[in-house]
Specification:
Length: about 140
């Protein structure tokens, strides 16, 4: 259970730090244009999503080999499902738009960004729930 708690809270901290702190603040920095911000964001989110995929893999292995209560299993599996949704459905749309912006085009704003933010909020709630349930299972 310690591995589950450690991974869940590390994952949670990274999502909070990147999605809800670094991302909005970078666009407030002097001289950071939309193109520069998007370029930085793509690199940062690629790294975050890679780390998230590794966390999901570690959790999957841990959940298979450890005796994890079902009440912990459910929010962990749901958080991983949200990550899969983000990576498979939302990020490709965002990447296509940012490709256009980085190429010098001025495409209309995308509602996919709002979908990504909404799924990040859901993922944070699920990770908090999974972490609290993990700690209360000891």
């Amino acid at each position: 259970m310690a591995v589950v708690a450690g991974v869940v809270f590390t994952w949670l901290g990274m999502v909070l730090a990147i999605s809800f702190l670094e991302t909005p603040l970078k666009f407030r920095a002097p001289d950071v244009t939309l193109r520069v911000g998007l370029g930085i964001g793509r690199i940062v989110f690629r790294a975050l999503n890679t780390a998230e995929a590794l966390f999901a893999a570690v959790l999957a292995v841990t959940l298979v080999v450890a005796d994890v209560p079902g009440r912990v299993l459910a929010p962990v599996v749901a958080a991983v499902a949200v990550l899969v949704l983000q990576l498979a459905a939302i990020r490709p749309v965002l990447n296509r738009r940012s490709d256009r912006v980085l190429a010098g085009d001025d495409p209309p704003r995308s509602t996919a960004h709002l979908g990504y933010v909404a799924t990040e909020v859901v993922k944070v709630v699920l990770l908090v729930l999974a972490g609290v349930l993990t700690l209360s299972s000891w």
